[in-house]
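Lecture 7 notes: from sequence to structure.

We start with a single chain of 257 residues. Read the sequence below before looking at the structure.
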Amino acid sequence: SVNERIVAIEPKNFGALYSLGFDNYSYLKQHAVAVDWFTKALAVDPNHAEAELYLGINLYLSGKKTEAIKHLIIANAKLPSEKSGNYYIAKAYVDTNQSGKAIEALVKYNGMNQENPETQVLLAREYANNQKTIALAIKTASIAVALAEKHKSFIAISYDIHGWSLALNKESQAALPLLEKANKSQNSIDIQYHLAYVYLQLNMFPETDSQLKALEASGLDKKQAADVKRLRSDLTDKMNKEMEAKKKASGASEKPV
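Now the structure, written as tokens:
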């Protein structure tokens, strides 16, 4: 390309380095390559806010979430109203399990962009992970559902987090139709597990068993397998208790008066 020829002659030509980075980011989607070019551009002009921003974004998109955060913090300080920087740092905090910072960043971004169902889902999930903020999870998840239906995107996961938030608040009856809708839209392990959990809370044993069998046949990671095993154990316990209760009731009714 023209810019590559320029850099071959002038290795410290900031404009050419920046343009190569942007082309690889925006058009070619070669994010690791874009990281190299933006790194070289910043070496020429360390104070360039946009180069810092795009370096952070492309580090995130290359899977280097922790490193991305460092650059996005700098970029966001220089460009506080730039939506993309706030979006990617929020996602990076979520992906690196920094819940407190994730919530703060998501609240800020959602204030800047009130039409993104994805970030409402992410915020609801973070709230749902803390029993003290379940009410906020339910409220945020309901916003996510409305936006998902409006924009026809993130529908399954928005219904899932809304249903799961209600389930965590012991509102299983209200959670059930939301989770069943999510399961029809997208057959994911998380949604199946949440639905199995609610079926069990409502003593719908055949439905719980069916969901667990589907999960047990899936490729579960270690944590998922442990969660499913625990739910299977809870199902067995509940079924045994119900059976014992029926036996006692039957025995009592057969006793002579």
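Residues 222-254 form the longest helix (33 residues). Keep this in mind for problem set 3.
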